[in-house]
Each structure stands twice: as C-alpha cells, then as structure tokens.
Automatic annotation (TrEMBL):
This is Sugar ABC transporter permease. It is a multi-pass membrane protein. The chain crosses the membrane at residues 38-57, 101-122, 134-156, 187-211, 236-255, 293-315. Belongs to the binding-protein-dependent transport system permease family. Residues 98-314 form the ABC transmembrane type-1 domain. Keywords: Cell membrane, Membrane, Transmembrane, Transmembrane helix, Transport. InterPro entries: MetI-like (IPR000515), MetI-like_sf (IPR035906), UgpAE/MalFG_permease (IPR050809). Residues 1-30 are annotated as: Disordered. It is found in: Cell membrane.
C-alpha cells in the first residue's frame, strides 16, 4: 500500500519574528511623530525664557557698566568692561561676606535636613491624631508670612522684654538684657533658628511623602533577616528615598545661600549690617543703599557662579543616579 508523504508543518516563528523587527518598528514610530507636543510646550518655554532670560541678560550687561544714581536720571551708563569684577577680586570685605555666606548656608542646610528628616521618620511612627496635630503645626509655621513671623521672633529675643532672656534668667543664667542682635555670633544664632524653623516643614512633608511610598515588605524582610533599626534605615530606607533627599538638599543649599529677608529684617531690628551681611543683603545695600548698581550686578553674577559651584556635586550625583537607573 502506497502512502502519500506527509507535509511537514511550517516552523513556528518566534515572538520576535511575529512582532517584526523592533528596530524597524521604532524607526516607524519615530517617523510618525508629530510636532504637536513641541508646539504645545513652545508657548510656556518662550514665556519662561522671557521671564528669566531678560533679567539675567540685563544683569550681565549691567555688571560691565558704571551704573549709579546719575544713570537713573537719564545719563547714559559708561561701559567699564571687567573693572567691576577686578574691583571685587581685590575687595577683602566681599571675601569675608562670601565665607560667612557659605558657612551660614551649609550649617543651615545641614540642620534643616537633619531636623526635617528626623520629624518625617517620627511621623511614620506617630498615632494618627498626634501626626495630624504635628502636621498642622508644621503647616502653620510654613504658611506664616515671613514679616509676621520675624516680628514674633524679634519679640522673643528682645533685649529688655524678650521671653528668651527671661526664661534663661529664671534658670540661673546671666542673660538679663542680653543683646542678641548686637553681637555677630548671637545674631547668626537667632538667624539660624528662624531660617531652620521656617524651612523644616518643607523637608519634613516632602520626606514623609517619600516614606509613605516605602514598601513595608522590604522593612519586614530586613527585620526577619535580623537587621536592626539602624541597619534597616541605612540599607533600606535611605537608598529608597535618596532621590528625594538629593532634590530637597539641593533646594535647601540654593535657598540658604540666597537668604535675604530674615537677615535684612534682623539687621533693621538692631543688628550691625557690616558685621552680619551675607551676599543677599550685601548686594541690596551696595545697589539700593549705595547706588552702585554696576558693582551690585557684578556681585550678583558672582553669587550665581558660587551657587553653581556649590550645587554642582548634587546635580552630578542626581545625573549619575538617573543614568544608573
């Protein structure tokens, strides 16, 4: 009996063959892209460029000019090139203010991060009612206008009628009539207390929001494996919230370096401006107070360069972490 040969079944195609060449698919998708997203973003990008770009360009041009009070009444400014910058390099007072500003910035940023992260960790373990009470207090402290809060703090540290001096005197310390704002060291202590108090809520809320996204399974697994509280925090919690900490730390360095309102109002309340100037108040007093707008613009550009230098490690770490992920 003769049998007809059986046809062999066609070979099964792999999933890659059925889907086609991924490279060709990606090329086709790229070819089908429309300019609509770019057109939608363009108006916002242009508005942002005008709002930020024009003041920056105007500041750069002004830093190369001799622009004083006479120029405000119509006299054309004189182009002096790099003279303003050469004068700044040889100004010893500017370097003292710069070192003072860097020290103030780093101390305040570190304290703010420590207190804010500590509060965020504590809020994870608080009862619901206590946590809501703490969060309400932090929100009120954060939302309070700067001038109003500075008025309260000035009253607390007042030389004659301040509550702080009264409490310290009751504890047996010799703080009767202590001039907190007249001495540079105690002036910056008061300024640090105020700046940290106003900045901690932002850090606490942001880090707490990151902690709420932390998977409980990771902590439970680490605890089962025998990891203590410090080990769990160092090897589980910190790596998880590290991106948030980097962003918050970057913002704190920028904000604390350009702090102005708190220092200026404390100086107006009795502090010595020359002994307590930071870069922000120095720029203001050099320009608005002294009428040297060209020099003030040069200091502002120097402050911008300093901000870039101080924040470069944060930005580099963030970019490296993003590339690794």
């Amino acid at each position: 009996m003769r049998t007809t040969p059986r046809r062999s079944a066609p070979p099964l195609r792999s999933s890659e063959e059925r889907r086609g060449d991924p490279g060709k698919a990606d090329t086709a998708r790229r070819g089908r892209r429309t300019p609509l997203p770019y057109a939608l973003v363009l108006p916002a990008a242009l508005a942002l460029a005008l709002a930020l770009g024009y003041p920056l360009v105007r500041q750069v041009v002004l830093s190369f000019q001799d622009f004083g009070l006479a120029q405000q009444f119509g006299r054309p400014p004189e182009w002096v090139g790099l003279r303003n910058y050469r004068d700044l390099v040889g100004d010893g007072y500017l370097w003292r203010v710069t070192l003072r500003s860097i020290a103030f910035c780093l101390v305040n940023a570190a304290l703010t991060m420590l207190v804010g992260v500590g509060l965020a960790l504590l809020m994870r373990h608080m009862a619901r009612g206590v946590r809501l009470l703490v969060q309400t207090g932090l929100l009120l402290a954060w939302a309070m206008p700067v001038v109003a809060s500075l008025t309260v703090w000035q009253w607390l540290f007042d030389t004659q009628y301040g509550v702080i001096n009264h409490l310290l005197t009751q504890l047996g310390l010799d703080y009767a009539g202590h001039p907190w704002l007249l001495r540079p060291l105690s002036f910056f202590f008061v300024a640090t207390v105020i700046v940290v108090w106003m900045s901690v809520p932002f850090v606490a809320f942001t880090v707490y929001a990151a902690l709420t996204q932390l998977p409980e399974e990771l902590l439970e697994a680490a605890e089962i494996d025998g990891a203590g509280a410090s080990s769990r925090f160092r090897h589980v919690v910190l790596p998880t919230i590290r991106p948030v900490l980097l962003v918050v730390g970057l913002l704190q360095v920028i904000w604390d370096l350009r702090v102005f309102t708190q220092i200026f109002l404390l100086q107006e309340a009795g502090g010595s401006a020359r002994d307590t100037n930071l870069l922000g108040t120095y720029i203001y007093r050099l320009g608005i107070g002294g009428g040297e707008f060209g020099m003030s613009a040069a200091v502002a550009m120097f402050m911008l360069a300093l901000t870039v230098v101080l924040t470069a490690p944060y930005v580099r770490t963030m970019l490296k972490q993003e590339a690794e992920t």
